[in-house]
Amino acid sequence: MKKYINVLNTELDYILNDVENELLDDSTIFEFIKNKNELYKLLLLQTDILSEYLKDFHLNKLNKTLYDNFYQKLDIPYTVIYKTLNLLKIKLIKLLTHGGLDKIEIYEFSQYFQKLLDGIAKIYIQKDITVLKNIIQSPFKKYLLFSSHASWVENLINSIETDNLNIYPLISHKECEFSEILFYPESLMVCIDKNLCVYLEDLHQIIHKMSDSFYVFYKNEQFSEAYFLFKDLKEQILKFKQIISELYFVTYSNVEINFFKLVEILEYSDDLYLTMIDIKNLKNLNKIYGEQTVTKALCQFETELSNFINHKENNLLIKGTTSDFYLLNTKYSSDEHKEFMFNLKQYIQNKDLKINELNINFDSLLVSIKLDKFSEYKDFELIKVFSYLKKESKKENNDFIYVENATDIINRVINEKINEQFIYKKTNDGELDVMFQPIYDVKTKEIFTLEVLGRIKDNNKLIPAGIFIDTVYEMNIVTKFDMKILDKIIEKQPLIERVSPRLFINISFQSLLDKDYLAKLKELFETFVNTEIILELTEQKFVENYEIIEQINKEHNIFFAVDDFGSGYSSLKALADLVKKGVLKILKIDGSLIKDILEDNYDEKVVKIISQLGQELELLTVAEYIENEEILKIIDKLNINLAQGYYLSKPKKIEDLLLDMD
What is the pLDDT of residue 194? Predict the structure, then answer.
């Protein structure tokens, strides 16, 4: 074999020249290198490398020091090395074949050459992995999502740099700390949108799967395959890092706004507490010690406060603008949270901080409220409530206010301007809008229809009907209100029809008796030619006016759903007549029966009877107030057809529902 190797060395210059010409004819090579000179330089350098390598063929090993020194400094992609060496390999084997080498010897030579390719690939992996070091040195490492990712990357780097696979982070994405942290309050605030959280989760899973495959190739010393996989893995890791960095950068550029967006997103939670921490003597401290010194003290206070609060799976502390700090707590029982707040009060009371040899004393105010489940409060409303409670604390000379049932206070504060004059002006000027709450098929979990919900617009807030609708009836402007709502629905027709082929619209019985309203309703039907429109009336109105409703159905071909069925004393005869004449299609079960169905066995029995009645009359039944998975399972067991509630979806703008579908 040795004599053949000598022949190869003799012919090497000729073969390299042949390879150079072949590569120059391939225009794709210049996607990876700059010019011909660079290619020529590479081939020239590799002549010496290859000669040395072939001399050691009988030893069947690599001179690692020699290749490390060469390829670590080389600024040419491994792809080009791989291409050139494979061409050389083919030509050398061809020469050996003509020289009379048998198949076994050629196979041994081929394997020896592959070892060279793998050895170079390993050098490139160890060289390229240093690019990932900027992740573990990033200023974003102080944040939860980033730090968990950085820790995993650091273990990966250490394993490859030391060539020690025993410390390789070989864990599934589910076992990785990142997967748990992704659902902490801080992480949810950064994602702010569930689709972003899902995207990060998917990308995280891809990275772990690629890492596992890379590990297998690397462990089996298939370094060429490992390198090509590592290139993709590296790009995904860097992409992941970039996305997280940008999310944190944007979020903390306006952290208070994003904090309150998170509060809004978490409004379905059972136990959600919001706390304001305000430094009472800040202006005086600035005068005494100077703003720069006090700012340093505030930063130190934030760090110590964050360390004391800890448990970041339940808590999120931010430095605010409308108050010095805001704190969000989740998943605490009432007693646990009271104890937590008591300990926090004790900790911050007359807190001394040492800055530049100065002892600075912070005198803090603590205001904490519990938010009701499914509350729809906006940031400015909650800030207004805290401002009100802050004033109350001054009146009472109390530096700790804890409000366990804040609904009355919140409603009083944020709705103080929603009086008759406000409602009349908004209705008259058409400053109204509509939101849509999906109703789902219980079996398929797909949207069956959308229920339209009227709102009053107040700057960037939409005020729920529950706050003003009674006043609208009392002022006798409900027909005007209903007509304006129809206008808003017509405006959004193209978007609505992209989400659902059906629409449920709540109306008042008074409006049905108004000719102008019926004309507007006709316009709506003519606009929604491809949509089934169902009007919702309360059970009581059906019973009292079923003959008029029947007449309206005949004259205008309008179909109805009974809302709040089970809340009153229905005339089953009237109900049967309306079904028989094709007027009635839907029974919406009164929400109070669904709300307590887990605790009240009699409510479950009533709902079961309504379900059976619906089946007998061939009516679809709808259960509202689906607040959790357990209630959904019960109504499925009772054969209720359709379901609606915050567990499935809160009311949303039609644009947001379209985004959810993507």
Answer: 63
